[in-house]
Amino acid sequence: MSTPSSRGPVAAAAGPEEFQPAEVVTLGETMAVLRSQHPGPLAHARSMDTGIGGAESNVAIGLRRLGVDVAWVGRVGADSLGELVLRELRAEGLRVLARIDPEARTGLMIKERRTQETVKVWYYRNGSAGSRLTVGDVPAEAIAGARLLHITGITPALSASAAEAVRFAVDCAHDAGTQVSLDLNYRSALWTPEQAAPVLRKLVADADILFAGLDEAAIALGAPHRPERMAALLAGMGPDQVLLKLGPEGALGLIDGSEYAQDAVQIQAVDTVGAGDAFVAGYLAELLAGEGPKARLQTAVRTGAFACLGPGDWESLPHRNELGLLDAAEGVQR
């Protein structure tokens, strides 16, 4: 990993693992999460659960549980929440290539379950350690040794330095012949559609694999269209594989010029936060395993369904030997 930049004292949190190649590298902000234990106004909650969450690390955990070796790159504060983030990611088997920033706090996400079916999310990430990601934090050698780099549209919205870090990571991937996977993941709390559109379009043009919801695709394209038309227009911008996440309606893929439709798995959702990240993990895991488009999409909707079965961004993600549980005829296994 590059030495710390001159912007401030930053200590590397990774050890020898940073020099070991991983199949996938991803980078972005992982935050601590506080969530109410029961439905109802947060103002009346008497206890809260702690956890972690972040789009890129959610995907990384999903991939790892499906047998893929993954490295996560990011920054955390020199605080207990940063320690929580690093401990949880390492416990999930990720290669953690992180820096501890003593001059910034770890970002925080708070989730309120107002009803059994609805969740409200607040972000406290302005000036956070994760938003201070720089080019100097990006391990070019790790990206060069990986098969795939996964990024999202969240990180460029955090700060100018984070946007530069993403740009540098993509350039490293292109130089090394590493595939680039992009999930648009638009966040209205971070920037407006007008601010996001040109940045997202540039990232789309540089991606080999693109994931998007319909609203996100409309921002990148400048206007909404039918899903099939959106997929074709996005593919025309550069990606060989375009995957549109359609929620309870499943997914649509335009993969190497051929169109594929995939129904969703019908479940009773508990918490849908993180379902899109789980979809990405399922698809990429099968791609890396050499599976065809149909198998990739089938696993993607299954991992997406698993993510909705319990509270939390990633805790319900399946291991590979659990993928068949959604088809189980018996509720009890012995």
Automatic annotation (TrEMBL):
Keywords: Kinase, Transferase. SUPFAM superfamilies: Ribokinase-like (SSF53613). The keyword Iron-sulfur does not apply. Residues 23-319 form the Carbohydrate kinase PfkB domain. CDD domains: KdgK. Gene3D superfamilies: 3.40.1190.20. It comes from the Bacteria. InterPro entries: Carb_kinase_PfkB-like (IPR052700), Carboh/pur_kinase_PfkB_CS (IPR002173), PfkB_dom (IPR011611), Ribokinase-like (IPR029056). The keyword Transferase applies. One of its GO terms (molecular function) is kinase activity. Belongs to the carbohydrate kinase PfkB family. This is Sugar kinase.
